[in-house]
Amino acid sequence: MSRLRLPRPRLLWLVPLLLLAACTAPPDEEDADGAPYPWPDQAPGERWQPPPGVGWQWQLTGRLDLSVNAPVYDVDGFTTTKEQVAALAKAGRKTICYLSTGAWEDFRPDADAFPKALLGRGNGWEGERWLDIRRPAELEPLIAARFDMCRDKGFDAVEPDNMDGYRNATGFPLTAADQLAYNRLIARLAHERGLAVGLKNDLDQVPELVGDFDFAVNEQCAQYRECDRLTPFTAAGKAVFHVEYELAADRFCDRSRELGLSSLEKRYGLGAWRKAC
C-alpha cells in the first residue's frame, strides 16, 4: 500500500556540517530497565541479528541527537560521519545505515553517476525519482558503492528504502518478479559486506523475502491494520522496526507489544523526537 508522501526537509542534505558538531554527549549505555542492552557476542565475520522487541531510534533530519536511550540507531548513511558511528558503537549502540536503493535523489553526492535512462517518475518526495530496477547490471555497482560506504563508516546494517516500486506508478512496467529479484540483489550486496539488511515495507512479499532479510522496517502498519503481516519476521526471531505518524502511541503500543514489534510514534520529518512503546 502506498503511504502518504510529504515533502522531506532538505536542510539535512544541505548542511551536513551540523552533524559533524553533533557528538556532544555520548549516549546512555543503559536500556529502559537501567542495564546495558544484552547484545550476544558475535563471532568474527558474523552478521548482527536484531531480535524482536529491541528498542530503536530513527532520525534522518536535523542535528543528530546521540543521547537518545535506545540500543539501535537508524540514521542517514551519507550525512552521518564515521566518528558519530564510532561514538555510538563505543556506547554499545548498533547502527543502521539509511539509504535509498529504489529511488534516485538529486541531492546525493553520487547523483550524477546514475544514468538518466534509469530515472522514472517522481516518488512523492522533492528531488526523488523511481529507479528502473529491471536493469541490475547498471544499478549493482552504484548500490554496491553505497554499501561500501556504510561498511567503511562502521555501520552494522543497512535500511534500503523504496523497495516496493512495483506497487507504485514508477514510469516503468515493474512486476512483482522484478521486485523480488532486485530486493534479493540488495540483500546479497549487504551480506557480502558483512552488513545486516532490513526489508522496508513491501508487505506483499514478506513471505518470500523473510529468509533473505535480517529484520524489517515498516511505516504505519497499525494505521492500515497490517501489522499481523509482519509476524513471519518476529516468528523467525528477527526484529520489526515500526513507526506510526498519525496514531498516538497509546493507540497501537499494546498490540505492538503483543506482536513483538519495536514501535515508535514519530513525526513525518523524522527528526530526533520519538515516543517509544
UniProtKB/TrEMBL annotation:
Q: Which Pfam families match?
A: Glyco_hydro_114 (PF03537)
Domain of life (superkingdom): Bacteria
Checking SUPFAM superfamilies in the record gives:
(Trans)glycosidases (SSF51445)
InterPro entries noted in UniProt: Aldolase_TIM, GH, GH114_TIM-barrel
Signal sequence residues:
1-21
Annotated keywords: Signal
Give residue ranges for domain Glycoside-hydrolase family GH114 TIM-barrel.
56-270
Residue intervals passing through the bilayer: none
- The protein in question is named Endo alpha-1,4 polygalactosaminidase
Origin species: Streptomyces subrutilus
